[in-house]
């Protein structure tokens, strides 16, 4: 366990509670600048260089807008994506000023209500040297069928000046983007409508389809995350709770069971594989919470919940390690992987509030402790930053942690 890292305050935020409330913070790191998107829609530029505590360079304030949930470097700028009434995508200069802005609600529609999960949501951002890619969605329940899920979503390719080069619209729920070598992979975690492809790979030049893949399982659940390789991709299946490697045409090369249904304490339970990171050294899959096949509540714990699994590119399991709780996202820099642990909402164990570091090939390398829950992380050139949020568990009543940014050197 590493010593506590230097921190910078991110202001005040209502503490998280026992139930997970989805992403409400984001962080990215580039050239010594950590850019943090906060739960109130603001953006902070924090100097992450040097050995002392990180210091805030600038603070971009918004007017009543909702949380920033995605951030990524784009050329000499940083782009932030919001969950809010306008579903804004903002491109910021390194001094915090706005170069351009696009409101995705103009395409996905206005929310049915101001309820958090009904707000337009920029689910993922990715960038290459030419374009910024964004996946935005809005969820609703159709009034004619109160139990029917419906999504409106758009994947955008933006030029550096903020103009849209092309877009792709569907009635499914995009959750993750990966871009490499002229290809953009889009993972759709729910497909309740006409769009029935869990994974779509597009040509970055014009948005045309290169190939598609789907786990072929019943129901709406499809793909949780995707990482492109030089030839093909690695993805997580929410349909059968496995990890897949696909070749350059989308055909499966191997399948690794991760948290597939099994009997525990008299119940059949499973956990979704929510994240994957892949390099030429291998792939790492990360699973989420335990759920029962019948209903939503359970006292059982799947033995592979909240677990990181390292796999070679030939499909051989190398290592496994706990991540302590639900990971809302990953921070990565090549073979360095940072996994933030937020609530384990069923056990509510504050001893697992930490950030765990992994090497893609070799597994766990370090653990950084935190008082609150760690909800976002980023890594660049050996430096790792992570966002901690305060939390109050309903059966304890004690506020743990604070809203702050941790920074440390992963090479030490």
TrEMBL record:
Residues 1-27 are annotated as: Disordered. InterPro entries: PQQ_rpt_dom (IPR002372), Quinoprotein_ADH-like_sf (IPR011047), WD40/YVTN_repeat-like_dom_sf (IPR015943). Residues 95-339 form the Pyrrolo-quinoline quinone repeat domain. Pfam families: PQQ_2. This is PQQ-like beta-propeller repeat protein. It comes from Haloarcula saliterrae.
